[in-house]
User: Which sequence fits this backbone?
């Protein structure tokens, strides 16, 4: 493989939505994700994050903190966190207590990524809603969490989160737009851009974040901007097999677009997929998933290097949907070797 050595091989991380394949139970889906976390830990990936989704029959990622605890208990080195906790669904005090407890369990291996989206449909969001998704409310909630986990919370706090005190939980802000980027910058926190399914403003958002980053903010945890870019990964031994595996990803996302979600479907030839789904729908899915790397290890490395060059990412976080969880782990192994993880 002739990789472009002028492009730095930034750390790679994994985002897991705990997908369920056709014929698989929720318990089996969770077990498969835990095997994925163990593989990522063994192979040298930097982080393993779990998303938060509700009322979604093909995903088992609704209880994010519980998944983090399980994965951290089954791994040794890798950082485990949320990508992310959707703050409108939670009371900030409970988030601080949950993640403070996770740090007490697992030490400095826990990340808390925070977002403003509901991670579900509007009806379900009404059952979950605890705080507002408005920017000012989001910033206030982040500030509260940061204060509750500080080494010395300021005097006068009416309520303490004692289990979180002193943990200084590493915070990330998740977003897909320029507005989200500005919030991360104003808070002085790292920014993870959700370009894996919302790529339409990701370059503008990254630029806005870097230009307006405020290292002097009271909530700042870093001294300079730090960015993580999300991308879809479909990797196999050959380009042809990866394109066949990509059908699982495209079919899954067309279900998101149409509201007809189903468990992950087996890979198939593109002609078979096009016979089932309209060209317009497939084009819409491909556009939403445009930040992706599909192919053999050599092809994927080249595509990921292009993403790093175009975005200036400090880290990539990858999400991969495979009908067979074994294919996903083999993909992680191939990419780790091709990217030089652990070397």
Assistant:
């Amino acid at each position: 493989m002739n990789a472009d050595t002028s492009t730095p091989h930034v750390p790679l991380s994994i985002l897991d939505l705990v997908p369920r394949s056709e014929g698989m139970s929720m318990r089996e889906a969770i077990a498969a994700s835990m095997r994925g976390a163990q593989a990522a830990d063994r192979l040298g990936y930097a982080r393993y994050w779990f998303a938060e989704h509700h009322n979604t029959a093909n995903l088992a990622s609704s209880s994010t903190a519980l998944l983090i605890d399980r994965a951290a208990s089954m791994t040794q080195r890798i950082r485990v966190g949320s990508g992310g906790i959707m703050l409108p669904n939670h009371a900030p005090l409970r988030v601080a207590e949950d993640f403070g407890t996770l740090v007490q369990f697992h030490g400095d291996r826990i990340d808390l990524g925070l977002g403003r989206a509901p991670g579900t449909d509007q009806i379900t969001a009404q059952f979950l809603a605890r705080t507002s998704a408005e920017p000012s409310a989001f910033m206030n909630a982040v500030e509260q969490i940061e204060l509750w986990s500080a080494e010395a919370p300021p005097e006068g706090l009416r309520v303490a989160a004692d289990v979180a005190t002193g943990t200084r939980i590493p915070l990330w802000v998740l977003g897909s737009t320029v507005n989200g980027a500005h919030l991360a910058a104003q808070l002085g926190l790292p920014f993870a851009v959700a370009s894996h399914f919302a790529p339409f403003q990701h370059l503008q958002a990254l630029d806005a974040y870097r230009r307006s980053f405020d290292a002097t903010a009271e909530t700042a945890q870093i001294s300079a901007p730090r960015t993580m870019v999300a991308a879809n990964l479909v990797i196999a031994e050959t380009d042809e097999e990866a394109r066949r595996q990509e059908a699982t990803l495209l079919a899954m996302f067309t279900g998101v677009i149409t509201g007809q979600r189903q468990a992950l479907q087996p890979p198939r030839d593109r002609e078979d997929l096009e016979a089932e789904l309209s060209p317009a729908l497939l084009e819409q899915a491909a556009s939403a998933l445009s930040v992706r790397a599909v192919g053999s290890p050599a092809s994927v490395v080249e595509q990921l290097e292009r993403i790093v060059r175009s975005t200036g990412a400090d880290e990539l976080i990858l999400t991969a949907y495979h009908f067979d969880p074994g294919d996903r782990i083999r993909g992680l192994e191939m990419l780790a070797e091709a990217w030089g993880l652990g070397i």
Summary: The chain has one domain: 12-240+293-339. Residues 12-240+293-339 form a domain with the TIM Barrel fold (CATH 3.20.20.30). Strands lie at 12-16, 47-50, 79-86, 110-115, 171-175, 191-193, 227-235, 292-295, 315-319. The first strand starts at residue 12 and ends at 16.
